[in-house]
Amino acid sequence: MTDEFMGPPWQMDWRLDAFTAFDALPDHVREIVLEARGELVTAKDPYFRGIETDACLPDGTQVMPVRSSDPKGAHLLLFDDEHGWLKFTFVPRIADPQIIVEELFWLGAVPPTEPPAEP
After folding, report:
1. Cβ contacts of residue 55 below 8 Å, gap of 6+?
2. Distance between CA atoms of 92 and 31, rounded to whole angstroms?
3. In whole angstroms, what is the distance from residue 35 CA to residue 55 CA?
4. How far, in Å, CA of 34 to CA of 23, rounded?
5. Sequential DSSP letters for 14-75
6. pLDDT at 54 over 70
7. How far is the C-alpha of 70 from the C-alpha of 32, rounded, in Å?
8. Model pTM above 0.85
9. Mean pLDDT value of segment 95-112
10. CA-to-CA distance for 87 and 65, rounded, in angstroms?
C-alpha cells in the first residue's frame, strides 16, 4: 500500500437497494447505466471532468450536484433523457477511494416488442 493518492479506475460500491433497482432495469436501460458507470470510474475526478463535462457520457446522460451549494457532496447521474437517476458520492480518501451508489431510480416505459393489435 502506498501513502500517495490513488487514481482511477475507482472502486464502485452499491447499496443493496440501489443494486436491486439496477437488476430490475430493462436490458437497454441497464446498458446506458453501465456505459455511464464506465465513464465515472475512469474519470480523474468523477465530480469535475473538465470543460465539456458530459462529452464522454452516453447520449441523454449528464452528471450534476444534488445541491449547487455543495459541489463536493452527492451527485446525480441523469440517464435515459432524464427518465432516471443514479445518486452517488465520491469518497476521495487515500486508503480506499471509491464511488458509492446510494440510490437508483428509473421512471420509464419498456418499448413494445410487438406491433399494436388492429381493431
Report:
1. none
2. 26
3. 13
4. 12
5. E-HHHHHHHHTS-HHHHHHHHHHHHHHHHSSSSS---SSTTTTSPTT-EEEESSTT-TTS-E
6. no
7. 27
8. no
9. 81
10. 9
- Sheet bearing 11-14, strands edge to edge: 11-14, 98-106, 84-91, 75-79, 62-65
Residue 19 pLDDT more than 90?
yes
Pairing of strands 98-106, 11-14: parallel
* Residues 79/36, Cβ–Cβ less than 8 Å: yes
Task: Give the closest residue to 61 by CA, choosing from 84, 45, 49, 78.
Answer: 78
With contact defined as beta carbons under 8 Å apart, do 42 and 56 qualify? no
What pLDDT band is residue 38 in, cutting at 50, 70 and 90? confident
